Amino acid sequence: MKAIALLSGGLDSTLAARLVLDQGIALEALNFMTVFCTCTNRDATCLASQKAVETLGIPLKVFNVSEEYLDVVKDPRHGYGSNMNPCIDCRIFMLKKAKAYMEESGASFIVTGEVLGQRPMSQRRDAMRLIEKEAGLDGLILRPLSAQFLPITIPEKEGWVDRAKLLNIQGRSRKPQIKLAEQFNIRDYPCPAGGCLLTDPGFGHRMKDLMDHDPGFFLNDVHLLKFGRHFRLSPDAKLVVGRNEEENRKIETFARTGDVLLKAAHYPGPVSLLRGSDDERELEKAASITARYGKGKAMDHVEVNYKKVEEVDHQSLFVSSVEERDTKGFMMIE
Questions:
Q1: Residue 327: its pLDDT value, please?
Q2: Three-state SS for 64?
Q3: Under a CB-based contact definition with an 8 Å cutoff, are residues 273 and 251 in contact?
């Protein structure tokens, strides 16, 4: 008998997989990555899930679904959580993908690390039922950590797994899971379950600003949200200012045709990216803010070079560094 385990690499999904493995079920781990994941490396690989499968001794299949997932974020049928997290629609999306892979790989059911009552939006009893139904997986999702509080599943009815060996964990306390991890000698679980930027208030604010001003945004726009200081200069103009050399390089990497790059000519300082407008007034604001975060901010006038990404030659503006108090009116939450 074979099952597919949805594995974030967090403690809950790792424990759930271990409980099913201990019942003699062959498991393959499945991980869905998006641009919003917080536990990926530079090669866009999920570090946490890799570490977990090494501990469990099972194979791992990783799918990057970032492009498709943007449609879920833009218009979630079941709404958002406390920030910009469309948790119910996210879960339906992932489980539909898992169902297709389950059928393709010859597996019989899906294992998840969900805990009843742990999250207010997607791990309520009614939400779990809704998600299961809309994903087309009635009775085929086994949640080993909370199974004894939930309706009996097909794997239990058929005797593939022993319900008596499944658990009755519920609520937000992590103590039962930590105790179980000690019993299983699972000690390294670096990424908490659900390591998602959309649940972060600061990132959520940036995301909402993007959606409000550019509802047809692309993956590139989301990547850019992860770096620098963000300023909304006008409904059409946004400025991103690097905070260090690494962020400067990232900002240049994600610059695209039509964007304007700015940098002080004679003093060390940030690379800035102006997106959405090259109006003269916005350029001057962008140059003044760029000067504010460079070494020449105390000078009466600072020369700032600027050019569109697709252009070869730069032009220059001489500006005064904007006062910090004047940036707060259009600085987005960090």
A1: 73
A2: strand
A3: yes
| Short-list 86, 101, 93, CA closest to 65 | 93
In single-letter form, the type of residue at position 80 comes to: Y
- CATH architecture classification, 2-197: 3-Layer(aba) Sandwich (3.40)
Which residue, chain included where needed, has tokens 């692309």? 218
Q: Give residue limits of the domains in the chain.
A: 2-197, 227-327
Q: Which alpha helices (H) appear in the chain, and where do they start and end?
A: 11-21, 47-56, 66-74, 87-105, 125-134, 154-157, 175-184, 201-213, 219-224, 245-254, 280-292, 324-327
11-30 tens-digit pLDDT: 999 999 999 999 999 999 99
As a 3-state breakdown, the chain gives helix, strand, coil percent values, each rounded to 5, of 40, 20, 45
Nearest of 134, 6, 12, 143 to residue 76 by alpha carbon: 134
- What would the two tokens of residue 200 be? 């972060």
Q: For helices 175-184 and 11-21, give the axis angle rounded to 10 degrees.
A: 50
Q: Is residue 296 within 8 Å of 308, Cβ to Cβ? A: no
